[in-house]
Amino acid sequence: MSILETKNLGYSYNGKSKVLEDISISFDVGKMYAILGPSGCGKTTLLSLLGGLDVPTKGEVVCNGENINKLGLAKHRHENVSFIFQAYNLIDYMNSIENVKLTSKKAPLPILERLGLTKEETKRNVLKLSGGQQQRVAIARALASDTAILLADEPTGNLDEDTAEEITQILKESAHELKRCVIIVTHSGALAKQADIVIKLRKGKAQIFERPEEINKQSTSQPQKRKNNVSRSERR
Ligand SMILES: Nc1ncnc2c1ncn2[C@@H]1O[C@H](COP(=O)(O)OP(=O)(O)OP(=O)(O)O)[C@@H](O)[C@H]1O
User: Which residue range or ranges hold the ABC transporter domain (predicted)?
Assistant: First the structure.
């Protein structure tokens, strides 16, 4: 069973023109998804609906077989989902270690150091870190949490090429080795190339591109039959 699904999902802000129309996608654990599309096409909107930050105007979001509205959006956010926001959303009177401790009982220092922060930087108030360093703290906070779903909005947007590549590999590991469902909104072609599944949004619709060669390497089980109502399996 997919951990997360959208069923005929639609959304419009203030009842005006539709941002999303009839989107049905299944998301599995153990896979990294990249959501691509032109600016303003609804990528962040889709991520917000998946994370229970907003309610669809049509259709539903289902997590572990249950409509997240019925489950309770706050419960869904608390139990199932970690976010890496575009604006980081760090607690600005705390240092990095304290920010990571908010979501996890795991020791924060190894995770922060793995993401390239020095011991001294982890003790500094987050507002005294550079934009890229703050972004890495936000990523560490999400990685340290135990939720099965990780939603990330442009997680490599503020990083140099090498750091972006490193973060991409850490997110991929989180999907493949820790068996999380990692869903990333990105404009980065390099990140998208590393994803197992690419979802392209355009004019409110989604197109799915699978990478069967990557998926087969990770799993010896039979490939799952997709239930999406969108065009499928186009090797890039
Ligand atoms: N609160 C809001 N009220 C009204 N319209 C909104 C609101 N938030 C977003 N929109 C509009 O909805 C559309 C989709 O926005 P969204 O942020 O989901 O796009 P996006 O694909 O993530 O864009 P980008 O790549 O530029 O970040 C845009 O046209 C945007 O202007």
Answer: 4-228
Residue 8 lies in domain: 4-218
pLDDT score of 216 = 45
Q: Are 9 and 204 in contact (CB under 8 A)?
A: no
189 C-alpha vs ligand 1 centroid, how far in Å?
Answer: 21
Ligand 1: residues with CB < 6 A are 13, 19, 37, 39-45
- The CATH number of the domain where 92 resides is what? 3.40.50.300
Q: Where would I find the H helices in the chain?
A: 43-50, 68-71, 73-80, 96-101, 108-114, 119-123, 131-144, 161-176, 189-194, 212-218
Question: Which residue(s) pair with 67 in the sheet?
Answer: 62
> How far, in Å, from the CA of 188 to the mean position of ligand 1?
18
Q: Decide if 231 is inside a domain.
A: no
User: 14, 17, 18, 19: which to mutate for ligand 1, most atoms within 8 A of CB?
Assistant: 19
pLDDT tens digit sequence for 122-163:
999 999 999 889 999 999 999 999 899 999 999 998 788 998
Ligand 1 centroid to residue 13 C-alpha, Å = 9
Is the interface score ipTM higher than 0.90?
Answer: yes
Which residue minimizes the CA distance to atom 25 of ligand 1?
Answer: 39
